[in-house]
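Customer ticket, subject: "Can you confirm the structure for Enoyl-CoA hydratase family protein?"

Message body: Hello, I'm evaluating your service for our small team and ran a test protein. I'd like someone to confirm that this is what the system normally returns, since I don't have a reference to compare against.
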Amino acid sequence: MTELVGRTRARCVETLSLDSTGTRNALSAALVAELSAALAECGKDPDVRAVVLTHTGTTFCAGADLRDPPDPDALVALLRQLIELPRPVVARVTGHVRAGGLGLLAACDLAAASATASFAFTEVRIGVAPAVISLPLLPRTDPRALARYYLTGERFDPAEAVRLGLLTVTADDVDEALAPVLDGLRRSAPQALAETKRLLTARVLETFDRDAASLTALSARLFSTDQAREGMTAFLERRDAAWVV
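Agent reply: Thanks for trying us out. I re-ran your input and got the following:
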């Protein structure tokens, strides 16, 4: 079986690379399961100080795989796992991020992107809503500023992603920008990192506890509607949906 998540390690930093370029690293049931297993191993390994989540190809993550979507509960569990992992997780993005991929980005503790990256909440254009991914997104961003992109599905650039709170930093050379961040994590005590992360994620986890069930139900309901079926069919057929005027 082809591995969908690559793994390398350098000086106690484990790099997990989404590696399903044929689907633009879309969140399939298999990819979600493999990433979850890799994260679980990182969380148990005392030699892992931090995790970098990155990708191969030109897309960090295209969102849910419409041909092999993950169970909504599995996606919620993956996002929560990123947040609860007792190691800082740093997103490294050098390509496009769409829909559910932005949920992964928001679940990471820090996020850096190259100047060529682009972002879009495309759910509304296929007849659904960014429901489950709102669990990590809304507590960590400015909802008023986010409203434009949630409601329109427009693309936006890394500078705007920084302004919204989706990114920590953007730079022409993302690895150069991340070098001092990773150096700082390597210099920090593991126990202190874990407890400091707990402080930073407490409000996000409160949102999961309160809203996960209702947002999962909303996602399931919307994906079963006629508009969602039309939207997904139009997307796969590369045409405008019937409601476009």
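A couple of notes from the result: The beta strands are 5-10, 13-18, 50-55, 59-61, 89-93, 96-98, 110-114, 118-120, 155-156, 169-171. The chain has nine helices and ten strands. Feel free to reply with more questions.
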